[in-house]
């Protein structure tokens, strides 16, 4: 069985044509992309590296990784989103990036220990078995390489801000984008990483200020958070 939810794939497929519209439902991804890209590069300078972006969607992060000098592969199971990513790379003239429709678990069997950097951002809360994705990411990264993950914490605050606030009050995201039961506490995700043989190096929180309309990275991991992990040599 493929570790994917058909409803989730259809949801993002229906919005695929809006992926690169910075004022669309994907505006938050465009806003946080520079923050997460700089955070990744602070641990692993990207020039000359090989990078894998798991759950790449329309290619916002994949494109940026390639522009930082990493030979980048973006993978996803949402066919329409991948076509948008490929079209954007062609139109923007982005070099060093390619896209494939393949499950991360299948790629892990095909190309183990092949990448210096593996990213899986804003995806784990959309799959039935996030631990399987983390294990596959660990299998795909080279010894000494980095795995960067991001998702949503599971608590009352995250429910109120990420679902009620973002989807229904501020309407930053379409209603139904997230399912609270699939959110992951940092301790749960950290355990997935340890079980996969990864060593947790750092965590950061991503917060949004509705007054300034700006995102920032800090110590508050109550809602959105990121983990940096390394595979032992």
From TrEMBL:
Keywords assigned by UniProt, alphabetized: Methyltransferase, S-adenosyl-L-methionine, Transferase, Ubiquinone, Ubiquinone biosynthesis
EC number: 2.1.1.222, 2.1.1.64
The protein's annotated pathway: Cofactor biosynthesis; ubiquinone biosynthesis
Record-listed S-adenosyl-L-methionine binding positions: 36, 55, 76, 121
Enzyme class: transferase
Keyword Acyltransferase: no
GO BP annotations, alphabetical order: methylation
GO molecular function term, any single one: 2-polyprenyl-6-hydroxyphenol methylase activity
UniProt KW Transferase keyword: yes
InterPro entries for the chain: SAM-dependent_MTases_sf, UbiG_MeTrfase
Reaction catalyzed: a 3-demethylubiquinol + S-adenosyl-L-methionine = a ubiquinol + S-adenosyl-L-homocysteine + H(+); a 3-(all-trans-polyprenyl)benzene-1,2-diol + S-adenosyl-L-methionine = a 2-methoxy-6-(all-trans-polyprenyl)phenol + S-adenosyl-L-homocysteine + H(+)
Similarity remark: Belongs to the methyltransferase superfamily. UbiG/COQ3 family.
NCBIfam families given in the database record: UbiG
Role description: O-methyltransferase that catalyzes the 2 O-methylation steps in the ubiquinone biosynthetic pathway.
Protein name: Ubiquinone biosynthesis O-methyltransferase
Gene: ubiG
């Amino acid at each position: 069985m493929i570790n994917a939810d058909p409803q989730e794939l259809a949801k993002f497929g229906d919005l695929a044509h809006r992926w690169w519209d910075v004022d669309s439902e994907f505006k938050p991804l465009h806003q946080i992309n520079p923050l997460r890209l700089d955070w990744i590069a602070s641990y692993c300078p990207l020039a000359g590296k090989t990078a894998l972006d798991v759950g790449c969607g329309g290619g916002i992060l994949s494109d940026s990784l390639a522009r930082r000098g990493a030979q980048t592969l973006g993978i996803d199971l949402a066919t329409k989103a991948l076509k948008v990513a490929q079209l954007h790379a062609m139109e923007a003239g982005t070099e060093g990036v390619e896209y494939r429709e393949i499950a991360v678990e299948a790629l892990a069997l095909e190309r183990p220990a092949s990448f210096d950097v593996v990213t899986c951002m804003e995806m784990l809360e959309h799959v039935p078995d996030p631990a399987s994705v983390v294990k596959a990411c660990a299998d795909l990264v080279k010894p000494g390489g980095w795995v960067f993950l991001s998702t949503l914490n599971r608590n009352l605050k995250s429910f109120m801000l990420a679902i009620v606030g973002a989807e229904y009050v501020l309407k930053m995201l379409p209603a139904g984008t997230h399912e609270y039961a699939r959110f992951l506490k940092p301790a749960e995700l950290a355990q997935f990483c340890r079980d996969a043989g990864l060593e947790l190096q750092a965590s950061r929180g991503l917060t949004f200020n509705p007054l300034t309309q700006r995102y920032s990275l800090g110590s508050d991991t109550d809602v959105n958070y990121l983990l940096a992990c390394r595979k032992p040599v």
